[in-house]
Every structure is written in structure tokens, then in C-alpha cells.
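Consider today's protein:

***
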Amino acid sequence: MNYLRLEIICWSCLLIAMAVSTEAVSVWKLPTAQMVYEDLEKCRQESQEEDAATLRCLVKKLGLWTDESGYNARRIAKIFAAHNQMEELMLVVEHCNRKEQDTSHLDDWAFLAYRCATSGQFGHWVKDFMSQKEVER
């Protein structure tokens, strides 16, 4: 009887945890170029213009980074879904995440993984995305 009660409690906890994580994922919205620029300004001030710290702050605010697992490749791929290369982009981001992973220097990890991932075609997509704000003005 106690075993059954324990099993029910475990399953209940698991379902609650899944519901919470599903809700957290569904709340995330695709960032606009305007959102990126606004968060970038806040992060520059918070990090005193230091590039690696600014980048990590920005990607955290945008929901694209966690200190535990680095870049969220799926979310990044969703931003650039119009390029029809989501799987390839996710592979690049995941590769760079693993290659540069350094949990004792999080700012450097974020910066080096970003440089790695944006060294090719993805870098051009990022520039195009960021130039949307100038077009909106």
C-alpha cells in the first residue's frame, strides 16, 4: 500500500514538473529586432560595455541561454526558420556549445560559442535580422 502511494506521488510530481516546463517553454516568444536592441542597451549598461558579459546578458534576457546548458539551439533555429535550415543550424549551435563549454567562465563560453556559430552563413543571417530595425525606422 505504501509503495502504491509513493508511486502515485512520484508520478504526480513528474506530471507537475512536465506541466511547469511545458508552460515555461510555451511562454517564450520569438524576439524582434526591436526587442534585441532594447535588451542590448540594458545589458551594455549592466556589464559596463564588456563584450562577453554583454552578450551573455543579452541572450539570457532573450531566453536563448542558460548557464547550465548554454545556447538553446531549438529557440535559435526558430528565429531563423525562414531559411529552411533549422536542423543544420541546431547542429552548428550544439556543436559550438559543446566545443566552447566552460562552466567556470560563463561569459567566455557564451562569447566563444557565439563566435563559433556565427563564423559561417548563420553570421550573415544574424546581421540581416539585426538590420531589420533600421528598416523599421
Summary: The first strand starts at residue 65 and ends at 66.
